[in-house]
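Next comes a concrete protein, fold included:
___
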Amino acid sequence: MSGFLGKLSPTKRVVAGNNNDLPLFYSNSMERCPRDTPRVTATLGELLMNVDDASNDHRSLEMASPLTSSASSFNSWTSAPASSITSSPFVLSFTDLTYSVKIKKKFPPFCGNSSSNDSALNTKILLNSISGEAHEGEMMAVLGASGSGKSTLIDALANRIAKDSLRGSITLNGEVLESSLQKVISAYVMQDDLLFPMLTVEETLMFSAEFRLPRSLSKKKKKARVQSLIDQLGLRSAARTMIGDEGHRGISGGERRRVSIGIDIIHDPIILFLDEPTSGLDSTSAYMVIKVLQRIAQSGSIVIMSIHQPSYRIMGLLDRLIFLSRGNTVFSGSPTYLPQFFSEFDHPIPENENKTEFALDLIRELENSPEGTKKLVEYHKEWRAKQQAAARYYNNGITLKEAITASISKGKLVSGATTTTNSPSSFQTYANPFWIEMIVIGKRSILNSMRQPELIGMRIGAVMVTGIILATMFTKLDNSPKGVQERLGFFAFAMSTTFYTCAEAIPVFLQERYIFMRETAYNAYRRSSYVLSQSIISIPSLIFLAACFAATTFFAVGLAGGASGFLFFFLTILASFWAGSSFVTFLSGVVSNVMLGFTVVVAILAYFLLFSGFFISRDRIPLYWIWFHYLSLVKYPYEGVLQNEFEDTTKCFVRGIQIFDNSPLGQFPNAVKLSLLKSMSGVLGINVTAETCVTTGIDILKQQGVTEISKWNCLWITVAWGFFFRVLFYFTLLIGSKNKRR
């Protein structure tokens, strides 16, 4: 991304519109101010220029607050050299945006037609030639009934629809807005509040600052930015309150919405998109959210949102409106033009009527009529053509590169600047190197996990209970034929259990999936950083679980090998936990439902156990299933611990008289068995006594078909499976988290 702006074409922007047509509202006043009046709301970056790194923490935080900053701090910026503050208002223009999807339409059954289930593809137009523009310092709202295309238009403008599916053009200051650049200079706030429930408001915003703001910005300035943003969002009283969820009491719905906005504007983006930010809020909370968005717009941003049905007070804060009806524009312009527009359409708005409610009710009424909104759509096109013809055009002569550079020089878009000086000239795709991202992701995950000790305790409890049950069931196994069979059963169950206990990792990522998609969609951090960080922070817990399970079972069962045998058993259990955790993590990136994920994991692990070699040895598996034997994750740790147990050639597991134990002859007296041994010795020509060793550990390994891979190679293959599934998990994130419509 560095040097990207230098490659932009020097196209000049010709902007349509009268600067004095649209009102700008400040605070609760409804007084109109001309569009060329200088704004007094400084950007967060401008305010942070007053924060010193050396001392005076409390004074720095006061100066950083946009609600308490003095006029002198703003004037000190405006007294900077002209070259550093020359700016051009940003204008986001979109022309003829069209988007359609293919849906299956089932035909009703006809008489004599037996193929009543036949279906065909039908095209549904969600956006039909939508045009408009949004200006810096303004809020533009997209209104309409459910299914009108509000969220689709926001997604189209926010680059959340695949390019080959969306027709039309989107430009910023007259230059085509590339996807890579848009990710840097914009932010998107989803309709749902996707937050970590166990973090406080302040911690949530601080982690966002760690992701979005560059390493070159000091810790003190990041904290100052967070504190100023808390004040700007009106969250001071809730700063140290946990976000909360269904099981934990936390902040209110309106506060959650403002936190969601805050984490996406921490870097002061030039363009802010929001999908129904007032949905589910009461009128007071909704008004406070829109008031916050107005302050963000006045600080030099373009704010574009979809909104279902704004109140009268909210309407007073909006600068531009677009009304949609089934994908068509039925009105676009300033709210002040609504009475004139509908009056000329022969549907005047009554004097005491809420203008927005009247317009939405009329649109719904027309949608239910036989002709629909066709006449209103056609009239809007004529009306808009007249407005454009009467508008004044001007040419500011400043390219997009120069406009963004001037914006950065004022302290805006900090995460995109490669330097914190007042004359940055290039952008980075990500604000921080990958190792910084890994540290922040890891720190957040650990903090969130520590505040949910019941989840950690449940997993430790599951492993310990399983270990205790196995230790008491298979206590001090002897070296008899039955002891051999019991050892085989213990190893098979123990190895499969380590994989099954990893299934708890499924909901972990599924809970974070949409948070991850939101954060990576606009380059908060790299997907590789997330995968590496989650892998590394999982290792300490896996070591602890493996140590608990190995210590509980190894000595109680009486396994062979001493200290070295215990070490290998522990490492095999650890490798199994690692491979199982990686496998389940990969599956969580493929499936999107917790119950479906558990079903898939349990089924696949059952197949792994079936083909591991315990129920049927490798030599007896049919050729057409042998490939699954080598794909089984349970096979390698199972064969590894078998070799660890039976590799001692001096150890005997079946002696002369014991060869009858697993046959009906085992019920006969020992005298009969000894007589049989004498007869067998005469026939075989070998003296077989009651103490003659018949089967060693090596013989048992051969019977089980464990002859191909050494125990250490089994260990390394198990570890390699873990890394393999982590790589697959990365690619599932890379492919499956594009978060774009097709």
